[in-house]
Amino acid sequence: AEVCVIIPAAGSGTRLGEPVPKAFVDLDGATIIERCVDNIPESLGASIVVVVPADLVEHARELLPGVAVVPGGAHRSDSVRAGIAAAGDARILLVHDAARPLTPAHVFTRVVDAVAAGHPAVVPGVPVVDTLKQVAPDASGHELVTRTVDREELRAVQTPQGFTREALLRAHADDSGLATDDAGLAERCGIPVHIVPGDPLAMKITTPWDLRIIRDVVRETAA
Ligand code: CTP
Ligand code: MG
What we know:
binds magnesium ion, 7 helices, binds cytidine-5'-triphosphate, Spore Coat Polysaccharide Biosynthesis Protein SpsA, Chain A, alpha/beta, two-stranded antiparallel sheet, 12 strands
């Protein structure tokens, strides 16, 4: 395939606090990872690689027929590299969090179209609605506001993040393990990163509150 979607799903979901790793939590009759894979638009003609905890590889293969499943690593970027290694020679690589299972098709196509148009790295982003303050500890250790950030200049970024194969390989060649997204690694080695409009439905499930919202959306959509 020309496009490969790599889905890191090997995290433990510590902040969610469910008894199973986050990607294997039930969302109204299907797991988060199943819904995430089902939600990738057929029109991309993409191959799919899912990266899961080592002890869940066999289970994931049963849940996800037709999908390549490989074991992940300790950090998200280790898992992404395991996915890249299994991605074959696709020209465009998308990295998409399992934790964003309701991402709309138009977000995928916008990202792929922008990479195909010649941008080496493209991420979906949405405006920030909250007012943001930068803080630092004061003399007694309490948080003191040092300035108000101009939110007009900020975007909250989502996935799928799209790359040319070359850009993603370069981004991951010198990873110190701290980046929370792949575009962050690309930025650090001077690869230009462009933003396309994201979507509220591409929200990430991180906390129990997020899961509650996503469950409501899934039920409403099914009804
Ligand atoms: N991920 C991964 N391998 C890791 C860590 C994270 O594949 N070692 C994946 C997660 O499964 C998730 C995505 O990266 O789909 C985004 O990470 P995050 O939302 O932080 O998920 P978790 O790491 O599972 O959650 P937490 O940080 O609360 O433990
Ligand atoms: Mg994490």
